[in-house]
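Q: I have 304 residues here and want to know how they pack in 3D. Can you give me a structure?
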Amino acid sequence: MFAIAVHGGAGTLARDTSAEQERAYLEGLGAALDAGYAVLEAGASSLDAAIAAVVVLEDNPLFNAGLGAVLDRDGVATLDASVMDGSTLGAGAVTGLKHVRNPVELARLVMDESPHVMLVGEGAEDFARLKGVEMVSNEYFRTAVRQAQLQRYLKGAAEKENDLVAHGSTGTVGAVALDAHGNVAAATSTGGMTGKRWGRVGDSPIIGAGTYANNAGCAVSATGHGEYFIRAVVAHDINAQMQYAKLSLAQSVENTLARMKALGGNGGVIAIDARGGIVMDFNSEGMFRGARTSAGRRETAIYR
């Protein structure tokens, strides 16, 4: 048994979104699913598969990670990512990147080829250059859609910061996977929040908040308003309920999202356990998501 799930952010599309645009989002999720599934089908690890899926989403300008990331108050794309291997509890994270084309791949290198778990900003990019990671101009990440969103935000026309606005502009991308050896893994990548400032960092690069994986419980990747996911330690809390309280994956996710919602936070998670159980749940209006398993399941969705 092997399986993978992906998300492309919590929230929903604008009301004037065409059927063609909606189809493009679903096709983007499907492409990521298929990329990760092909890795699993070839016998590679769950971490390899999760990263392969996230790279596809980072390279798709529709989603808020890599190319097409949202912009901070100064019009700059600053990127975060993290990965975790459930078989070893190995983890890697990066935050405040401005020139790394695929942050999730750098997070993997931090895990595999450094003595650290998290690297930040210029230091992280020095490490990237040392390892031969592909670097790009910050202009590469900026799209007309994201620039327009920033202008609306600066003019006060955007939603309040705690709301999930159209086109995933407070969203994130991520993947969780189970390989044929029974190992789970998670990967998450984001551009953060439109108009962020003061070096704000959300939950995506924080192990235990936006990303967590442990074979004894599950793998989780989160999306939504990161401040609340950090305060509720969402990803680790879901795993802990499974590992220590012996609750089901579905019940653990439901409990944790309810606690996070009580704090005032919106968003969702994708999660997978060592038996191939997949939960994709959210307390927002929708969540861009998909799943594919070796048992023949393949689906993508946006709304509940």
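Q: Anything worth noting?
A: The chain has a mean pLDDT of 94. The chain has eight helices and twelve strands.
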